[in-house]
Write a structure and sequence with these properties.
Largest sheet: 5 strands, antiparallel
Distance between the termini: 89 Å
Structural class: alpha+beta
CATH topology of the largest domain: Heat Shock Protein 90
CATH superfamily of the largest domain: Histidine kinase-like ATPase, C-terminal domain
Strand order of the largest sheet: 2-1-5-4-3
Number of strands: 17
Helix content: 40-55%
Shape: elongated
Oligomer: single chain
Length: 471
């Protein structure tokens, strides 16, 4: 029975995952399990009868360990083992004293486990916390923590600078204007968070601070509101630039568009009334001036459209529209423009009727842009095809030309502002470079999408899709 018990204990020791070493009262190694041999890369005969201090990073650590064990206080005591080849391994150990029936110490048992991964995780966490503290201190965006009553309890230096205060204690005394947090409170209580809320704060010197704010509610495990955490971006300069831009747009609209329109009308009237009486050179100069003024008016109109779209001031007059007769009307209205390039437009559709919820004038603007581009880049005597089809729950409109195609280097930016990089061929391609950018914005305002397919030397097809309207 005693032999069986000993075999059983030996089996347990041999199969332990944690390391085990037994030493006599003088610290000489008496027993080792395979786990410690594998970990420290020793053979058993290299360690038996030798002092345990050779396994420790600090040799005198054994006497500290022995004192703790004999005092009965060793539990999760950290030390470091050293492998045969000098590599240090952090260990968490516990130990116990083996004594005979008279209480005389016969040996010490030390069980330890490798905590390298835990130490690495702790180190990574510490570094992460240090990086976060550094980020908190140095990030140019304001960061705060405030109570549900909007009292600041913590703020980083960037926010202190924005508010014009010198310390956190001073920021704790900051009081928001009564009506400046109404939208904030309503939104954060409703949604639990806020994204890009623009508002106006007052600095300590009473100057205005325009901000864009993100915030969220932090709650306890029981769901109790603890505080708000948020970030604040100073957009005062952006607002100033926007104001300057708006003033410029106003000047463009009122001081340039009106006289240019008058100039264009006068030039056209002059050519119409006196074409036969004018010298050929004068007539050509007037025609050039007329085309230039027309282009300037078109550029101004496009710039005003871009401004409306970007500022969210575009109002769509959405109505149920039968798209087929609308496209036929638009195509017919643009035939004269296509004739300048020897190009005709044709509509192809096998559907009886297809309805969308759309602003007819804006769809006309999109189609006019697509048709004018197709005409400018089509070979003479070509036909630009407009087709209408269903695509799932959407209606798809395509405009196909047989021109040179869009160069690959230009494709990624074709919908950007002032994009005119794919002019090729011998004819001069005029345009503002804003048409496709405006068209994309209009289609997306209709909950649709626009894209293109192109092949060098074979032509380009623009597609846009709108949700089909069904009662």
């Amino acid at each position: 029975m005693e032999i069986a018990t000993r075999d059983y204990l030996d089996s347990i020791i041999s199969n332990m995952i944690d390391t085990l070493v037994v030493v006599d009262p003088d610290g000489m190694i008496k027993t080792l399990n395979p786990a410690i041999l594998n970990l420290l890369e020793y053979f058993e005969e290299e360690l038996l009868g030798r002092p345990m201090g050779i396994l420790l990073e600090e040799e005198d650590m054994f006497f500290t360990l022995r004192g703790l064990i004999e005092a009965g206080s060793v539990h999760e005591f950290e030390l470091a083992y050293v492998t045969k080849h000098g590599r240090t391994i952090p260990m968490s150990c516990s130990g116990s004293v083996v004594a005979d029936s008279n209480g005389v110490v016969q040996g010490i048992v030390c069980i330890a486990k490798d905590i390298t991964e835990r130490k690495q995780a702790e180190q990574a966490l510490q570094e992460s916390e240090e990086r976060f503290r550094s980020l908190f201190q140095n990030i140019p965006i304001g960061v705060y923590r405030m109570t549900s009553g909007c009292k600041i309890v913590n703020a980083n230096p960037a926010l202190l600078r924005m508010l014009g205060c010198k310390s956190l204690e001073e920021a704790a005394n900051y009081t928001f204007e009564a009506d400046s947090r109404i939208d904030f409170e309503e939104l954060i209580q409703r949604d639990g968070r806020i994204m890009a809320l623009e508002s106006v704060w007052k600095r300590f010197d009473n100057s205005l601070l325009h901000v864009s704010e993100n915030a969220q509610i932090i709650r306890s495990a029981d769901g109790e509101l603890l505080y708000y955490e948020g970030t604040v971006e100073d957009i005062t300069e952006r607002k100033r630039i926007e104001q300057t831009k708006n003033e410029f747009i106003s000047i463009v609209s009122h001081e340039l568009r009106v006289p240019l329109t008058s100039i264009r009308g006068s030039l056209e009237w002059t050519v119409e009334k006196f074409a036969e009486q004018l010298p050929e050179k004068a007539r050509k100069m007037i025609e050039i001036a007329s085309r230039s003024s027309e282009r300037m008016v078109r550029l101004i109109n496009d710039m005003l459209d871009i401004d409306k779209i970007e500022s969210g001031r575009v109002q769509l007059d959405l109505k149920e529209v039968d798209l087929i007769p609308l496209l036929e009307q638009i195509t017919e209205a643009n035939q004269a423009y296509g004739a300048q390039f020897g190009v005709t437009f044709a509509v192809q559709c096998d559907l009886d009727a297809v309805h969308v919820l759309a602003d007819s004038d804006r769809i006309m603007q999109v189609m006019t842009n697509l048709l004018s581009n197709a005409a400018k880049f089509s070979p003479p005597n070509d036909t630009v095809l407009v087709s209408i089809s269903r695509s799932g729950e959407n209606v798809r409109v395509t405009v196909t030309d047989h021109g040179p195609g869009i160069p690959e280097k230009f494709r990624a930016r074709i919908f950007q502002k002032f994009a005119q990089g794919y002019s090729t061929g011998t004819r001069h391609k005029t345009g503002t470079g804003l048409g496709l950018n405006i068209s994309k914005a209009i289609i997306e305002k209709h909950a649709g999408q626009i894209w293109f397919e192109t092949e060098a030397g074979r032509g380009t097809t623009f597609h846009f899709e709108l949700p089909e309207w069904k009662d």
